[in-house]
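Worked example (supplementary).
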Amino acid sequence: MALRWCLRGLALGRAIGSSSSRLQLQQSTNNALFSARSLPQALQWWRSRADAPLPPSSPLPLIHLPPPDESKHRGSAEGDPLTFSAFSSSVDEVEVAKFAAIADTWWDSDGPFKPLHSMNPTRLSFIRSALCRHFGRDPNCAKPLEGLKIVDVGCGGGILSEPLARMGAVVTGIDAVEKNIKIANLHAELDPVTSSIEYRCATAEKMAEEQQTFDAVISLEVIEHVSDPAGFCKSLGDLAVPDGAIVISTINRTIRSYAVTIVAAEYILGWLPKGTHQWSSFVTPEELVLIMQRASISVQEMAGFVYNPLTGEWSLSDDTSVNYVACGIKRNP
Amino acid sequence: MRSSVGSHLTNAVAAGCLSRNYGRTFCSVVEGGESSSCPKAEDKTDQGEKFERTSKAEPYDIAIVGGGMVGMAFACALSRNPMTKHLTVAIIDNNPALGFKTSFKRSEIPDPRVSTVTPATISFFRDIGAWEYVLQQRHAYFDKMQVWDYTGLGYTRYNARDVGKECLGCVVENKVLHYSLLSSFQSGAELQWALYPARLSSMTVPSPRSVSSRIMSQLEDSPSGRFVKLDLSDGNTLHARLVVGADGSKSNVREMAALKSTQRSYSQSAIICTVEHAVENDCAWQRFLPSGPIALLPVGDRFSNVVWSMRPEEASAHKSMDGDDLAKAINRAMDDGHGPQPGSGVLGGYVERISSFTSWWGPSSSAAEPFRAPPRVTAVASERMVFPLSLMHAHDYVTRRVALVGDAAHTVHPLAGQGVNMGFGDASALAKVIAEGVSVGTDLGELTLLKRYEKERKAGNATMMAILDGFQKAFAVDAGPLNLLRAAAFHGAQYIPPLKRNIISYASGDQKWPLFS
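After joint prediction of all chains, the assembly is encoded as:
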């Protein structure tokens, strides 16, 4: 009970509440992985009561989105990011709106995406070593990912897709926000090496429905923004060929991650706009492994990213208490 | 992979013959204004298509402006690193020696332009495969060094055995260093490069505006709108992702990239010449005179190199002096004149007696070594050259898509022989940073990547420059208390082994910071 009180106290810091329950773990009887059985139930209870109203000084513009209507199609059949009504999707419209608002600043390395830019080399070195190990490539050459088909799910402005293309991969980038795809296309066209990247405004579910498969599926810092993480992860698994690699990175749900990514990054240092992250939607490593297992992905490697405030540099470590990444192999179900 | 890169580059600038053999041959030098004679390029040219020089050219990964020692060392370092050896490189320098057309002529008398390379630089040269070429030419290792001043109050003798090494450095003519780097580069593996024998006339660096606003203002007249555009004096235009300015102290690249620098000229010029001795010289000698230091460096074959800093009018006077007079002046400066020889007697003997108690400080064979007079100069063997001395440091070594290495970023007083070694350190560090960037697919001109190079080099370079400047100032003043202070410093360095070891390893480039390393 004290636990619930603590969690409710922490909820006072939230700017925008999310209304739907996120992890459908109550139905699962295989909770052996969780050390505290009451934790997910407490979380469910808390979330269902925590529709906090928007504070008056929200910096994000309030975009009034029409609710997704199951029966109507709006706009063009393909490109409209808000009408994924024909198929179930894990897209959360509020999250989409958040990112659409700051899409112009993707490639501004001092803007709201500065933490992603500064974390990028570290993420890439993990991906490079994991994929080289998985596909038996030589990590000591300039283009170790030559010929691999990779999909970057939630590519945003292409921060990850472009380096992957430079490393020789055939990259497809998908994102739910149309504006992001436009920005990514414009930026990639500027350099002949990256102009081969194919960007599409689509979701993982849509790509999976189209039976597209890739050697590696990479989705970094996305799963904490979707409304149905388990379904999203299943779609990621569907996108991978058998024995393909899936790399997911996200933020752990710990007291430390709250202090660092919400209090410090959003409120104190102002690195990210307030409301970028919801602590309740962070995923712990155990939950992530479980979700991935349900999607027939067996997790092979996991590592944490730590930030050293003195040197301003990110590095890989065993500490997964804030940012972490997991790499798994798609098994035949 | 090779063929795809090759066909990509077929559409390169003008007759931009890039080596697609990846072997020893390079295609050719890009002639100004004409399709150059490279049959292989013409075979692969998109049949019949005449590519224009200026538009839609595949950008080079790196354009090195300046093919001198530091520029070529950087190119060699790129070609030896497995990550960077597949990059495309353009070298812009109108020095005909870079055309690889003439073989090296060993001259009887050593050229007066020499450099002292530190052990750290020697190991860098070994890594890039250039040291073996140096060993085939004239070079002079030295393992002893003696420093004193005109007051005769103190001296310091350094010996390589103090730090357990074989040599303190090696004196090599600049043209030998350059030729070795060129040989190593040419025989190096797979780097695709083109030489542009021209000067840089202008450079346009893209401004850091956000993507969408740039599109809206329609600045994109070519796909390479995001790269640096270099216009050369012979009419060629090329684009590059990263421009490396290795073009010396009056760097065009630094000016065109609007990188500010602080410059102060010492009111001194250095006169250099090669002199002959009757005996072999195996020690480096430096004496600080009131008007400036004079250094005598062994070059091999009983020749030595003299670097004498003095006031500009005196320098021109010495330049036009008669050969014998100049030899006498040098001997006076090194030994006879200006003041007495430091006496080694009292303190040296005392130290020898207590050395059994102080042996815990570690070995120091040179603490007990007495002062020796430098070998006399018998004749001046070469022409004399005079050049002005100044101190320059760029505030920033990098900006978007531009990086400076070597003298373009910093120039120092020659009194400790560190200038070109700092430049080689820059080249090595930049090559390493670029390799790290390539390993994670970073865009080479990205500022965050280049800032890592700056962070690694700038602070260390600035510290070394401050120390050298301090020395220059300390020895320029003739005042009683300061003279005694300097004498105390000499004694300290001579008789305190840990301090001596520290000084040696800092000057050898084995230690990044002067203290507490």
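Two points are worth noting when inspecting this output. The interface with chain B takes residues 104-109, 117-118, 120-121, 124-125, 128, 140-143, 146, 162-168, 183, 186-187, 189-192, 195 of chain A (CB under 8 Å). The CA atoms of residues 157 and 184 of chain A lie 4 Å apart.
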